[in-house]
Specification:
The protein is an alpha/beta fold and 249 residues long. The chain is built from 9 helices and 11 strands. The strands form 3 sheets. It has a 5-stranded parallel sheet. A 4-stranded mixed sheet has the order 2-1-11-10. Helix 8 links the parallel strand 10 and strand 11.
């Protein structure tokens, strides 16, 4: 069997279906492993139906939340490669990363609608053909599909696993402080070893809770988020760091 990062979520849905997997603090939503795995399957199958396939790069421009978590897991399940991008960057910087990564899709939050519209208006500067917006009631860009509608169209059955092991699972870009950002490629196997190494320090157990306040476009947050599925613990996702909210939580 292929070692696929998305399978960790599926296994937890089987082993610990009713354990809380994700707390989305900003929206006050809570999801069990069964629920979030079904959502990851749904977005995975919906993206397959829209032409996303193994090896395709899909960028994620979102603040922390369940949509980021399930998109990352869903893309892993179908062998697509996530490209988490820094939402603090301007359009020129984002366009460079999207072009350099060869991204064909972009999943983004509605708060970045105007920024993404700028990128969309540049036409052939990127290879993106799929634009997916998590509008959450806000006015959606006309060129983009609605995330919730696309999610609802996908089957909650697990997609066929055709990628894993030494296939890429995500590309994490450097800050570019001494030049242009560079994409570091992470495979299903390298992420697995990172999880094993991290857990040797964290010693996470089922039903433990991990507060994730760093942005998930950074490995310092994306790895712990993935670790919660690996260990059966709960990811408490803060939209962004807020010291008062952290103490309240």
């Amino acid at each position: 069997m292929l070692n696929n990062i998305g399978l960790y979520l599926g296994k937890r849905a089987h082993m610990n279906p009713n354990v809380e997997a994700v707390v989305d603090v900003a929206t006050e939503r809570r999801f069990t492993f069964r629920e979030v795995d079904e959502r990851a399957n749904a977005i995975a199958n919906a993206l397959l139906a829209k032409g996303i396939k193994k090896g395709d790069r899909v960028a994620i421009l979102m603040m922390n939340g369940v949509e980021f978590y399930e998109s990352f897991m869903g893309l892993a399940k179908i062998g697509a490669v996530s490209v988490p991008v820094n939402w603090r960057l301007v359009a020129d910087e984002l366009t460079y990363i999207l072009q350099d990564a060869g991204a064909v899709g972009l999943i983004y939050g509605s708060e970045f609608g105007e920024l993404v519209a700028d990128i969309h208006g540049r036409g052939d500067d990127t290879d993106i053909t799929l634009w997916l917006e998590t509008s959450q009631g806000a006015a959606r860009q006309l060129f983009a599909d609605d995330y919730d509608e696309v999610l609802a169209s996908g089957s909650t059955e697990a997609p066929e696993i055709t990628a894993g092991d030494d296939d890429d699972v995500y590309i994490m870009y450097s800050s570019g402080t001494t030049g242009l950002p560079k994409g570091a490629q992470h495979t299903h196997n390298t992420v697995t070893w990172a999880l094993i190494t991290a857990n040797a320090t964290f010693d996470m157990r089922p039903k433990d809770r991990f507060s994730i306040a760093l942005p998930m476009y950074h490995v310092g947050a994306l790895l712990p988020a993935t670790l919660t599925a690996y260990t059966g613990s709960t990811a408490v996702l803060m939209r962004e760091f807020n010291p008062k909210l952290m103490w309240d939580l």
